[in-house]
Amino acid sequence: MVPVEVVGVRTHLADDEIVVLLLDPDAALIVPILIGPAEASAIASAQAGIVPPRPMTHDLLRDALLAVGARVGHVEITRLEDGVFHAALVLTTGRRVDARASDAIAVALRFACPVLCSAEVVALAGVEVRPAADEDDLAEFREFLDHVSAQDFETGQEPGPDAGGRGG
After folding, report:
1. Mean pLDDT of 110-123
2. Coil, strand or helix: which one is 59?
3. Are 41 and 35 in contact (CB under 8 A)?
4. Hey, which of 8-17, 22-31, 158-167 has the most confident mean pLDDT?
5. Domains of the chain: which residue ranges?
6. Which pick of 4, 90, 121, 124 has the fewest CB atoms within 10 Å?
7. For helices 57-67 and 101-111, what crossing angle results, to 10°?
8. Is the pLDDT of residue 130 over 90?
9. Cα–Cα dist 51/142, whole Å
10. Over the range 73-83, which residues count as b (16 or more CB within 10 Å of their CB) and which as e?
């Protein structure tokens, strides 16, 4: 099992699909898991620290487990089968509870416990994280911003010291 970080919930507007993104920082891979709107809301609200006035489903599960002296120690995304991610809540008692991946993640956030993902799932479903722009690219872009003006876009001139923009 590989520890992953819950990056957050994202919506792909073109397809109107919602995913939760899990990051394996060591492998620089993101595992996107398709989820429903209710689970997306549960995950996003937990990440934002929003406490509802009345317990929602995942809050109720947390409260019920705590009421009987149980805690979730960690959750595991165990396998990917026919496009469906399977998961388990692993209680501190050692017992395992089968769960949907989205529900397991929502519960993990409420217990502030680790999310683990099988290495096989990361290898199968992981998408390479695109590296951020390097410092040279950022410096070049900052230089561009230092010398660009609104007139540069109106005239089609290249910005710079000799282009009649602010730099020249």
Report:
1. 97
2. helix
3. no
4. 22-31
5. 2-128, 132-168
6. 124
7. 60
8. no
9. 41
10. ebbbbbebeee
